[in-house]
Each structure stands twice: as structure tokens, then as C-alpha cells.
Amino acid sequence: MLGAFVQAFRTPDLRRKLLFTLGIMAVFRLGTFVPAPGVSYPNVQQCIQGGGTADLLGMVNLFSGGALLQLSIFALGIMPYITASIITQLMRVVIPRFDELHKEGQAGQAKLTQYTRYLTIFLAILQSTVIVSVANTQLFPNCPVQPIPDDSPLTLVITIIAMTSGTALIMWLGELITERGVGNGMSLLIFTSIAASFPSAFGSVLESDGGVARFAALIGLILLITLLIVFVEQCQRRIPVQYAKRMIGRRMYGGSSTYIPIKINMANVIPVIFASSILALPTLAAQFGEANSGWVRWILEHVANPQSAIYMAIFALMILFFAFFYTSITFNPEEVADNMKRYGGFIPGIRAGRPTAEYLQYVMTRITTVGAIYLTLVALIPTIAFAQMGISQQQLAFGGTSILIVVGVGLQTVKEIDSQLQQRHYEGFLR
């Protein structure tokens, strides 16, 4: 892999793309430290050092690279765009118009992308309003000072506008990386946000009691999980497809053999994000309840604690459910079977049409079962291991979700760099 990067920097065109991508990532990290208008940076730092941050926005803070608790212009990070993209994909099941646009090709995809942008701005306004409204009360419950000293309506509106504009800028930066850089822009920005939290988490583990032993055990666990993720993400089931020969005019077309690649984990990390987001809702509701209420204490002890048995059980069931649900949306066996029949393709030993769709559904169900179990293990094993090693909840930046995203984006980016290297350094016919 290091050799591929060295070779990439020796290629002028690819070097410009890599430097452009690194520059955008640096701008993104710089924006996480720029406080929004009306926010007192010294007060925010005092609240962060005091410790008592709320746990309900933990995932948003992780995906923003710590910008949320800094109350910076990039406080929302990439989460509004992720949520908008997921909602747009789910709308294909509910609204037929979205499914028609998905089938229209490039023009329909451009329209769906525009809808995703509008929805991202709407969600950014909504989320920034919530964050600004709870910044002085529930974002830092035990802080003696106010992160936003002047909480007048005009100041709060300006802060909301700044955070929403920051989200729009992040979305633009991600699209710039996709168009002019290397890799998927949004994925690389998520990678940057999560990877930025690793050094502080390593440091907190080293500074704790028995830090060296815990640090060595943590590194070993991360390496084992990384090997598992790389192995599973590279695995795929290849279903052979044969195309019949067809005579069109005076030319013979078809007669080729190919295959349908089906990944074990087609849903990627989406089921884990879905499950984590839904499990954060009871915690959010508990923040507005009485501290001495029985239901509030039960939620904080069992639902808001990732190391409780009830949380793990609910989390595992929701991951299994959303893995099947999201895969059924993104992969339609009937649509694939119809396209194969239209172009004269068939699976050897399987009749075209409905039998092909049933066979694809059978294969998808078996593969998705393995993928859902794999996702559940990757999401839960680190949490269980951290609890056994005595690592606190505040040091869970190395959760299974984070490792899965970092390794997955890294693999995807290295593959794209390697493919571009092959395009620019192929062997000619004459030597």
C-alpha cells in the first residue's frame, strides 16, 4: 500500500489530485476549531475540561471530529448529509416518484442529489436550532459558565445561520473531493473526523491506571478487528451470468460470460448508524425529564449505557433488522432479473424471469444473514472488550462503528488510487 502511494506521488496528475484532497481535508479540520458567532471560546474550553458533557450527541460529535462540543461553524459535521442521503434512499420505497427518478439514469440521479442537498440544509437548520437552544443548559450540564454568554434572539439566529452555512460548506467540500480529488468526498470527510479523535483517545488510555498494558491490549484488539473487517469486506459471492448470442443486422452480439458480485456486507455501516441514532432518542427524552424519576433513571442506566446488557441486546436486534431492511431497498432481485432477461442474460441452470429473481432472493437472504451477524459482532465486541479492560465510556472512540468506517473508507480509497495507477502505468503491446 505504501508503494502505491509513493508511485501515486510520482505521477503528476495523480499527485495533484492527492494534494488537492489533502488540502480540502486540512481546511475541514481547520473549520472545526473556528467558533461560531456568539460562542465564547474560553467558556467552551472550560466546560469541556470540566467533563460533564451530555451523551445524547456523542455520535454527532464523533462524526464532526469534536467540532460539536467546540460549537464551531462545522459543529454539525457531515451528519445532516448522511441523514438526508439515507432518507432519500428510503423514500424510494414510500414515494414512487423517487423510484422513477432512480431508474432514469444520470438525469434522475442529479435530481435526487438536488433533493438530498435541500433536505441537508433543512436538517442542518433543525439540528443547529436544537444545539444552540440547549448549549447553555443541557449540552454541558455541570458547567458554571455559559458557552453562549449573550443568548439574545438575534445572537442565536446568527449562530444558527453560521452552523447551517458551515454544513453547506462541508457538503460542497465533499463534492469537490469527489469531482477533482481521489475517493468519495463525503466518506473521506467522515474518515477525517473519526481519525482525528484517535490520538486523544489513545492518550486518555495511556494516562489511566495500567495504561501501557491497556494500550497494548487495545492495539491488539484493533488489529484483530481490522483484519476481520478487511477479510469480510473483500469477500463476495459471484453469481455467473451467461448472455446468449443475438443477431442484430449483420452483426452478432452477446455470447459473453460475466458475473454478479454480491458483497457479504451490502448495507455497509448504515444499520449500525440507524440503530445508534434510534437508541439515542430515549436518551434525548430523558434529558427533559425529572432527574429523580424512575423511567429517567432506568433509561440512563440501561438504554444510555453502551456497556449494559439491555443496550447490547436492543442494539444487536436493531442491527440485524436494519441490515435486512436496507439490503432489501438497495438490491432488488426482480429488477436485476428483468434487466438480465431484457438483454438476453441468464444464470446457468436457472430459468430467466421469476425463477432467477427467486434464486437471487435466496442467495441474498443467506449472504445478508452472515453480513448482519458480522456487523453485530464488529459493533459489540469492542464494547464488551473495553468493559472487560476497564476502559470508560468516555474513551469509546474506538468503537466498532468507528473502526468499520475508517477501515472501509481506507480500502475504498486505496482501491481507487490503485485503479488510477493501472490506467496510467499499463504495459503497451510493444516493448
Question: Can you characterise this structure?
Answer:
With 431 residues, the chain is mainly α. The protein has 18 helices and five strands. A three-stranded antiparallel β-sheet has the order 4-1-5. It has a two-stranded antiparallel sheet with strand order 2-3. A hairpin with a 2-residue loop joins strand 2 (246-248) and strand 3. It is globular and about 80 Å long. The two termini are 27 Å apart.
Describe the strand arrangement of the main beta sheet, using strand numbers.
4-1-5
Here the CATH topology of the largest domain equals Preprotein translocase SecY subunit
Helical amount: 55-70%
The ordered string of helix (H) and strand (E) elements is HHHHHHHHHHHHEEEEHHHHEHH
Shape: globular
The poorly predicted ranges are 427-431
Over all CA atoms, what is the radius of gyration?
Answer: 24 Å
Average of the residue pLDDT scores: 79
CATH class of the largest domain: Mainly Alpha
Counted up, domains total: 2
**Between the first and last Cα atoms, what is the distance in angstroms?**
27 Å
Beta percentage is: 5-15%
Task: Tell me about the largest β-sheet.
Answer: 3 strands, antiparallel
Number of strands: 5
CATH superfamily of the largest domain: SecY subunit domain
Classify the secondary structure makeup into a structural class. mainly alpha
CATH architecture of the largest domain: Orthogonal Bundle
Give me the number of helical elements.
18
Organism: Georgenia deserti
Family: Belongs to the SecY/SEC61-alpha family.
Protein name: Protein translocase subunit SecY
Subcellular location: Cell membrane; Membrane
